[in-house]
Amino acid sequence: MAAIGIVFLIVGLLASVGIHELGHLVPAKRFGVKVSQYFIGFGPTLWSTTRGGTEYGIKAIPLGGFVRIAGMLAPARAGTPVEKNGQVTLAEEARRASAAELGPGEEHQAFWRLPAAKKLAVMFGGPLTNLVLATLLIGVVISGIGVAQPTTTVGAISPCVGEVEADQCADKPESPASRSALRVGDVVVSWAGRQVTTWPELSAAIAEGGTGPVTVGVVRGGEPVDVLITPIPVRRTVVDGGQVVLDESGQPVTREVPYAGISPAYERQRQPLTRAAAVTGNVAVGTAKVVLTLPTQLWNMATELVTGGERDRSGVVGIVGVVDIAGNITSSSAAQYTAVDRLGDLTMLLAGLNMSLFVFNVIPLLPLDGGHILGALIEGSRRRLAKIRGKADPGPFDTARLLPLSNVVFFALIAMTVLLVVADIVNPVV
Q: Where do runs of H (alpha helix) occur along 181-272?
């Protein structure tokens, strides 16, 4: 069962990467740029075929993919230093290698010759496909498969106060629900005379009903039944807007609330597309926050790895951790965790990965797509400004000059990948 989840995720991720690269390939070929290769995977080639001047294929290591667009770097402008201490600069070497990708008579097919707007379309096309995929997958789950929502049906009755498992109830008082005639499967329709149709309404009725005896109206086996229950006061942490409320000393604020000891049964309910759009926005914002705090999270992860500290459950995970999550989804033995539930969670996991690919790739640093997007934006702005001011065309943006920084980012990405893999194996999130 774990293998099913793992295969689902890997196939879905490879498909996402393949579509991402198509987002680059299709506009590039449409604009007349030479695209020599389109591959899924890295390493030795397992299969390939050439169509329309492009070699399409699959490689042995399924850890991504690439599309080779010819002539990415423009030649050096007149007056630009191409040698330093008698040796060709790194930027000039890259420019010459880029030019070498074009054969005689193909010079007009260089990427750097495109107008800035078309460069932007080619480079943003990849991340955009991941954003669209994430949006579609979230829509499928939220509005198609449905989202598990709590109902007024009693799903579980706590045997004691504050605990769910009976073997954890030593020296703890019996819960009010377990002392009453309430049963699992009862559908609560009223609490202390207040009609309820949703779990939030029932929760509010319990909170407002106090700790005295109350009559609970339920439907059991299709018949209405009245049950008497006496909630008890317990102390709970105050939460406002999803955040724990703290006092002046920084400690969580608590207060007494009525406690009954019931938990809801869940059922999947389809939500409107507006809800899917809102969820997509929340996922995008959450992913962006993770990316912005990535250096801090990686430092904490490395520290936990060295000291043996417990991994932050809300922190970033690598591909090994994500694959492990997928395996756990399909191998879970929970009786109420249906195949539809598993499919929904796997689909949301794949949607999250696509959102991560979108957000990460638009970081304005080479060799990421965002670096080329930034270059296209700068080039377009310079040319428009020069035209307004009546100045000469400044020409294409010299991306090659950013290669020293690009190499730093490249090695940083490798180091990050290695750290995530090691942490996921040695100190996984539990």
A: 199-209
Angle between helices 339-361 and 2-30 in degrees, nearest 10: 40
Query: Token pair of 168, please?
Result: 């954890």
CA distances from 43 to 98, 126, 343, 399 (A): 21, 22, 32, 27
pLDDT tens by residue, 212-260:
899 999 999 999 999 999 999 888 887 776 677 777 777 787 888 899 9
| Calpha distance 138→354 (Å, rounded) | 11
Please provide the DSSP assignment of 326-389 as one string: HHHHHH---TT--HHHHHHHHHHHHHHHHHHHHHHHTSS-TTSHHHHHHHHHHHHHHHHHHHHT
What H or E segment, with its residue span, contains residue 155?
strand 147-157
User: At 13, which amino acid appears?
Assistant: L
Percent of the chain scoring above 90 in pLDDT = 57
132: nearest Cα among 360, 368, 358, 322: 358
Please give the distance of CA 130 from its chain centroid, rounded to a whole number.
11
Residues acting as catalytic residues: 21
